[in-house]
Request: fold
Amino acid sequence: MRDPNVRIPLPAVVSRLLGGLRRAGFTAYVVGGCVRDSLMGRTPGDWDICTSARPEEIRRVFSSCRQILTGEKHGTVAVIVGGVPYEITTYRLDGEYHDGRHPDAVRFVPDIRQDLARRDLTINAMAYAPGEGLVDAFGGRADLQAGIIRCVGDPAQRFAEDALRILRTLRFAAQLDFTLNSATEAAAYAARGTVAQISAERIFAELDKLLAGPAAGRVLAAQGRILTGVIPEIAPCIGCTQPGKWHCYDVWQHTAKAVEALDVTGMDEKSTRVLRWAVFLHDIAKPECRTVGPDGAAHFPGHNQRGGRMARTILTRLKAPAYLIEGACGLISVHDCPLPNDRFGILQMMNRSGAPFLQRLCRVKRADLAAHANNAAVENRTREVRRFESRVLELSATACYTLSSLAVNGSDLMAAGVAPGPAVGRTLNELLQAVMAQRVPNEKAALLAELPAILKEQQS
Reply:
């Protein structure tokens, strides 16, 4: 239960806060995620402190510091040191959870063990103090070493108290590459429908972190049934077979493998987020579009476009950011479209969609193909995507494919005699097409010399 031999290096300010509470006659520990991360050799992002001091006593001990008191009724006082808030919370027990999210009331208790007993997972229910070492009443350290996600006490009770804990178990499994123990998994599945009572914003935040986890694909593959509690559209994907030469997984296992295969190297934060959600939902409409041909092969006509619409419904329901909805749904709507292999066709696609969109699309396609059958046809298609991706990168740096990069503009055309109005835009676009087709060089004199022929053709 206690291991005095454990040593966790603490930031100086955290040591001072603990010392201030202890000198005032109270017990105090760092607790939760910072202890977990430290034991794993990671640098904690936050340091939470719990103590036997009541909120009014915490305020008195640190009366010389600025404080945030919005959490005081639940026992938390945030003490600001160097502009950084440090949450200090009184040991407590939670009352009934009638809303499935927040305790109706809290009761302050004098013992750290009682406080740890109310927490969600064993790996988050450990405390540490210099001179005392590690307090581990529920086997969290052993679970860390074994790579297990396990609830403190009765998992059904933990999930009944706070349904968001169901998603937290999956999120931690994905982030840490851990496995749910059987009792926790069974209880999470049984209570999956209760997650719907949680706010959409909090559900989205947990799913977003899950998808960012290194083991997201493995967790999706193993725990898709639990996720049907928050995204019911997943249920038909589980077991939806895809017979034929292209596939070797059902729709859901294919999705999980694609999430696992997604390469976001070099992508910015927004693009990475868009890509993760696009791959996660890219085949969500396949069960609705499934047909089987005379040869026994499965076909999914229209699943791109319908998938984009379904993804928009899901992401809107989850209150995802607007840029994420537009970006992910746009990719899903065309993720299975053919790619041109000629210069003019590629430039036209770049003109319509933009090079950044096509670079994202290639990432989606490569992840999708990596989750197909391992055969020559799939390998050939993957090579085609890589060639297209390389050409987009090359042409985006060297070719003219937008009006802004054209060597003439609307003022130049009007000075050359083109009447103001729609004709200017139409003529600029025709000149751009001529440049992309390499019929005319992107030089001002050459483009103006081409004007008479274009204007004559427009009038005919």
